[in-house]
Amino acid sequence: MISIAWAPLYAHPLPANHRFPMLKYELLPEQLLREGVVAESAFFRPVPPPAEDIMRTHTTDYYQRLCSGQLTRHEERATGFPWSAQLIEREVMILGGTLECARRALQGGVALNIAGGTHHAFRDRGEGFCLLNDQAAAADYLLAQPEFGVSKVLIVDLDVHQGNGTARIFQHEPRVFTFSMHGARNYPHRKEQSDLDLALPDGTDDATYLSLLHDTLPRLLQEQQPDFIFYLSGVDVLETDKLGHLALSRAGCRQRDEFVLGLCHRHQIPVVVCMGGGYSPRIADIVEAHANTFRVAADLWS
Q1: Residue 176 per-residue DSSP state
Q2: What are 179's strand-pairing partners?
Q3: What does the DSSP 8-state code read for residue 49?
Q4: Which structural domains are found in the chain, ordered by start?
Q5: Which of 47, 128, 194, 261 could form a disulfide with 178, with the two C-beta atoms 3.0–4.6 Å apart?
Q6: pTM to 2 decimal places
């Protein structure tokens, strides 16, 4: 049975102008339960991790200033959020969810975080609505614990935006391979260098996108031989997305998930999935596309 990290705090501490895209954190669990995709027992409420599990990835100075509300105005503007204690609690909880997902995936093969995928956060700063980098922290956590037997991590970032924070964090870490497939002309305007970047032109459709992914990911598994995979399954690749500028259909987005998760399942590589972005004008389009990711995982690891 799949495990899913979710907490009510995921959705609530944000200012009103950010609330609409965050509704998915409330609606997605409700839809999965209503459809019977998972039982209520699949959900677990994450807990804040020890500070050392955060400062393994983020600098002590940044984390302490973040928690105490001492970011400069410039730093705060770069995150896109006004500071609040509840916002920091939310970000720490999301990171804790991804850490616990990593532990659970080692046991059950897969775990998913309803939130997460905060790939624009750097070691010493936040950007683009990302304050702490949950997948980077979880990768560092696994590599730091010899008993887990993880010596190589592959991060598959298929959000429409490049995982610039993740790329910079691991630029000198050979045990983590970062793969980002993203819109070439989309945020961030200044890209970092992942181990592999595939920059897509505006309007990329299902056939082009899936062909490129099919040509790339199996080769990476063969070359890198990862012990663990983190998958960022943003649905801002949809044609309906107001920020994405790609042209995937909902069916194409599901085929993407089926391919990535199918490879993980077939090769018996534990995988943690985080939701990433989604900004279609209709909340139903966002929730349905995210729900497909969970449906695929539930079918494979039933």
Answers
A1: E
A2: 156, 196
A3: P
A4: 3-300 (3.40.800.20)
A5: 194
A6: 0.96
